[in-house]
Amino acid sequence: MSTIKQVTAKARNELSLMEVLHALADPVRLEIVRQLDEAGEKACGMFGIDMPKSSLSHHFRILRRSGVIVSEHQGTVIMNRLQRKDLDARFPGVLKSILAGARQKD
Amino acid sequence: MSTIKQVTAKARNELSLMEVLHALADPVRLEIVRQLDEAGEKACGMFGIDMPKSSLSHHFRILRRSGVIVSEHQGTVIMNRLQRKDLDARFPGVLKSILAGARQKD
User: Fold this and answer.
1) pLDDT band for position B9 (50/70/90)?
2) Per-residue pLDDT for A103 more than 70?
3) I need a labelling partner for A4 at 20 to 30 A (CA). Which of A42, A51, B21, B29 fits?
4) Chain A closest CA to B54's CA: distance in Å?
5) Residue A9: its pLDDT value, please?
6) Contact A93 B91 (CB under 8 A)
């Protein structure tokens, strides 16, 4: 039995620009994406976002459903990473330019 | 008296990435933006979008408030255009990459 199980993955040709933009058009979700861009991968509880767990889970769910992130069970934690390759192939420049815009606010 | 009056304009440094993404994360608003990208400028009634006028006005309002478009009274019509220069200066590549993604669906 494997200890790694992918929670969800959206095929490249199923990615929707509307869903991706909606997923990114929120400060909490954009912060999650910004941190994953820096860290590569990160467990759900390690983002330092002060918010009830249920609300945070909701944001992760939207990011997963849109295909912006992919999550995997690794033992008892859920690890997240950007689905960068597929996003870049499908909508070139969108994630990169939005992340650059998000970094301006720092 | 001038017959041209700018309805709204958002200063470059007031543009918000969240507001811009929210404005673009809707199929009707993205279609308006796509048509303005092609046409340069266009009157509110000329987009060929089958929708009640009040709903369409709501979408134009969101696009204006976000600073994605600028509108001007020209006599009896309201002419719209993208606020491309300021958007590109503030968030380089965002509008261009999203428009490219939107064109894929044609």
Assistant:
1) confident
2) yes
3) A51
4) 22
5) 72
6) no
Alpha carbon of B39: minimum distance to chain A alpha carbons (Å): 22
Is the ipTM, as predicted for this complex, more than 0.85? yes
Which pLDDT band, with edges at 50, 70 and 90, does B23 fall under? Answer: very high
Report d(CA A64, CA A80) in Å as an integer. Answer: 9
For residue A4, pLDDT over 60 is answered with no
Q: How far are the Cα atoms of A87, B19, B86 from residue A104, in angstroms, in the given order?
A: 22, 15, 15
Q: Would the CA dihedral through A62, A66, A69, A75 be positive or negative?
A: positive
Q: What pLDDT is attached to residue B104?
A: 85
Q: Which residues of A are less than 8 Å from B22 in CB distance?
A: 25
- Closest-CA distance, A80 to chain B, in angstroms, reads 23
Chain B residues whose C-beta is within 8 A of a chain A C-beta are: 17-18, 21-22, 24-27, 30, 90-94, 96-98, 100-102, 104-105
* pTM recorded for the entire structure: 0.89
Residue among B26, B92, B98 minimizing CB distance to A94: B98
Q: Tell me how far apart the alpha carbons of residues A80 and A75 are, in angstroms, rounded to a whole number.
A: 13
Residue B94 is nearest to which of A18, A22, A97, comparing CB atoms? A97
